[in-house]
Amino acid sequence: MSFCEDNDAYEAWLATQCDVVAHDIKIKHKRMKKSAFMFLRATYFRWAKQIGKMCPELMDAPQVLCVGDLHLENFGTWRDADGRFVWGVNDFDEAAVMPYVLDLVRLAASIRLSPDRSVDNRKVAAILLKGYREGLGQPQPALLDEGETWLRPYAIGSDLESGKFWKKVEDYDDARPGRDVMRILKDSLPEGSKNILFYSRVAGGGSLGRPRYVAIGDWRGGRVLREAKALVPSAWTYVHGSQPSGLLKLARSKYRAPDPFLHIRGNFILRRLAPDSRKIELGADAASHLKNYFLQAMAFDLASIHAADRLGVAALRRDLKRRPRGWLYDAAKTAAGAVEQDFEEWKKPKRRG
C-alpha cells in the first residue's frame, strides 16, 4: 500500500477514535511537506506499519513498554512534585509494548533527518549507544539543578522566550468545549481560579487533528493554564493489535521524576502549560561537545525509561551485546531512507492538502 493510501486509512480510523479537527488535519498535511523530519514526526502510524519490513532483524529484540514515537523534539522540561526542574521525554501518546531497539532506531533516524546535521551519523549512533548503556547502568531522571546542570542555562530561557510563550497564548482561538471537557479543565486548575476562559490550541506533529482545549484562569496574581488533548490509542496498536495505554505507566515509571500535572481524565490527557514546560534547543552556535552531550543525555533518559520495565536491565544488556557492530547506524539509515521515499511521494503535486 502506498503512503497516501495508508495515510487515508489511518485518518479514517482516527475519526472513529475522536472528533477530528479538520482544519488541524489540513495544517498537518501542509507541515508534512516542509521537511522529511516534520514528515517523520507526523506519520508514526506509517513507521509502526513499515519498520518490521524495513528492519526485520530488529523484531526479535526483547519487548518492553516503549515510547514509540521517539524523536529529537520529544524532550522537554517540567517541574516534579517537589518543584525540581526536570528534563526528559515528555510525550508518551504512542507508548506501547514493542522491541526496545525501535526507540533507539527512531531517535537515530530523526537525528539523521533533522535540518541540523552537524554531527556525523556514525558518531550519532555511537553517542546514543554510549548514553543508553550508561542509562541502563545507573537509571535516573535528569534533574537540571543537580545532575544535568550544564543543560539548565538552555532550559531556563530568556525573558524574550518567555514572552514568546505568552504571545502564543494570546493567539489561541476562542473555543466552547463540551461540558465534560470544561468540567475536567476547571477541576484541573488551582482552587480559587477566576475568570476562566476556554481556547483551542494547534500544536504537535502526529497529534495534529485531535481536539486540544486550553483553560486559562486568573490565580493569585497571574495566569494559570491547563491543556486537555484527546486520548487516542497508540498507532502501534492500530497496526499490531490492541493493548492497554502505556502513557501514564511510562510517564510515572520507577526512574522518572514525573510531572504531577499529567493525568488522564475520561478520554483526555491533561497537563500544565507554562514557560518552564518547554523544549530545549541548544542553537546552531552551540559547541559540538555540548551537542554530543545532549544526544547522549537523550539516550540516557530513554534507557532509564526502558530500565523500569519488568523484563529487567540484564536482558537489554545481553541483547545489545549480541548485536553486530554498526547495527544502529545501518538500521537508522535504512529507516530514514524509507521515510524520505514516503516524503517524496507526499510532496507530489497531485496529492491533495
What does this structure look like?
This protein is an alpha+beta fold. The chain has one domain. Helices cover about 45% and strands about 15% of the residues. It has 14 helices and eleven strands. It has helices at about 5-15, 20-30, 35-40, 45-55, 100-115, 120-135, 150-155, 160-170, 180-190, 235-240, 245-250, 290-305, 315-320, 325-345; strands at about 65, 75-80, 85-90, 95-100, 140-145, 175, 195-200, 210-220, 220-230, 265, 270-275. The strands form three sheets. It has a six-stranded antiparallel beta sheet, covered by helices on one side. Helix 5 packs antiparallel against helix 6. It is globular and about 60 Å long. The two termini are about 20 Å apart. The mean pLDDT is about 95.
Number of helical runs? 14
- Run of helices and strands: HHHHEEEEHHEHHEHEEEHHEEHHH
Share of residues in strands: 15-25%
Number of domains: 1
The unreliable regions are: none
Mean pLDDT, rounded to whole units?
Answer: 93
Radius of gyration from the CA trace? 20 Å
Spatial order of strands in the largest sheet: 6-7-8-9-11-10
Shape: globular
Q: Assign the structural class, choosing from mainly alpha, mainly beta, alpha/beta, alpha+beta, or little secondary structure.
A: alpha+beta
Summarize the main sheet: 6 strands, antiparallel
Overall number of strands: 11
Q: What percent of residues adopt helix (DSSP H or I)?
A: 40-55%
Distance between the termini: 19 Å
